[in-house]
Write a structure and sequence with these properties.
Its EC number is 1.17.1.8. The protein is an alpha/beta fold. The chain has eight helices and eleven strands. Helices cover 35% and strands 24% of the residues. Bound molecules: NADPH dihydro-nicotinamide-adenine-dinucleotide phosphate and the ligand O=C(O)C1=N[C@H](C(=O)O)C[C@H](O)C1.
Length: 242
């Protein structure tokens, strides 16, 4: 039976994953939190699942590489340097990184890419996300993933179009921009909407997470899928064959 090592095991996601491991036909190898031994966990796990903090990513990837243990990375708030580290590790082991492990958001990203490609630059794109009061990063990893999907549909780089945190006398909207807005409060597990706004009409594509179980089930499915794969960087689209 495939054994799972959880990095960030006592966090909200770590606990959700541990509670669903048996249902998924998998086994818990163990878990660590801040100050834990990632090397020892990687050694006794068939696959690692990381829902912790960006600061820990470098050590977690090093432990995975040293033990040739594949790793699923769900942690968000990643910066460019973290993505370089992931690419580097993925030249040696199988690494799956995603801002959202749910089936629904993976499908939403697919729809957003298609809509952005077909509607063209005359339609404005705005992404709105709402999360619980304890979330520490913004925009959410999912909002960025959806922004990447929209940008890919338009054949542009998100970094060249992204507009965040409007405030004050901003001037009119930049044509072709992909805008982001973040709301925080209460216990919201994660709501995302992508609005495509044309002249006189708009489309709003939305996803609502009713609980963290959807992320946990997706992460476990991704982990089981990753075992035995060749070294490469994967995402949820690969797991769901989209
Ligand atoms: N991709 C997806 O589908 C999803 C991604 N997320 C992301 O996952 C991450 C975790 O979310 P959540 O569970 O809500 O956060 P929590 O703050 O509840 O949990 C984070 C856990 O990571 C632990 N941790 C901190 N530093 C380290 C370290 N160096 N090594 C190992 N563990 C460490 C913390 O331990 P301690 O308390 O000791 O510091 C804590 O137990 C966030 O980035 C969040 O955005 C969340 C949901 C879905
Ligand atoms: O921190 C969370 O809770 C979540 N984080 C992920 C994100 O940043 O998109 C995924 C999910 O929305 C919950």
């Amino acid at each position: 039976m495939t054994s799972i090592g959880i990095l960030g095991s006592e966090g909200r996601m770590g606990r959700a994953i541990a509670s669903l491991i048996e249902d998924a036909g998998l086994r818990l190898a163990g878990g660590i939190d801040r100050g834990g031994d990632a090397e020892a966990l990687a050694e006794k796990s068939d696959v690692l699942i990381d829902f912790s903090t960006p600061d820990a990513l470098e050590a977690h990837l090093a432990a995975a590489v040293a033990n040739a243990t594949p790793i699923v990375i769900g942690t968000t708030g990643l910066e460019e340097r973290h993505h370089w580290l992931i690419d580097e590790a993925a030249s040696e082991i199988a690494v799956l990184q995603t801002g959202n492990t749910s089936l629904g958001v993976t499908m939403l990203a697919h729809l957003v890419r298609d809509a952005a490609a077909r509607l063209g630059n005359d339609w404005d794109i705005e992404i709105v996300e709402t999360h619980h009061r304890d979330k520490v990063d913004a925009p959410s990893g999912t909002a960025l993933l959806l922004g990447e999907a929209a940008a890919a549909g338009r054949g542009i780089a998100l970094a060249d179009a992204s507009e965040r945190g409007r405030d004050g006398h901003t001037g009119a909207r930049t044509r072709g921009a992909i805008g982001f807005a973040s709301l925080r409060g209460g216990t919201v597990a994660g709501d995302h909407s992508v609005a495509l706004l044309g002249d006189g009409e708009r489309i709003v594509l939305s996803h609502v997470a009713e609980s963290r179980d959807i992320f946990a089930r997706g992460a476990l499915r991704a982990a089981a899928w990753l075992v035995g794969r060749p070294a490469a960087r994967y995402d949820m689209q690969s797991v769901l064959d989209l």
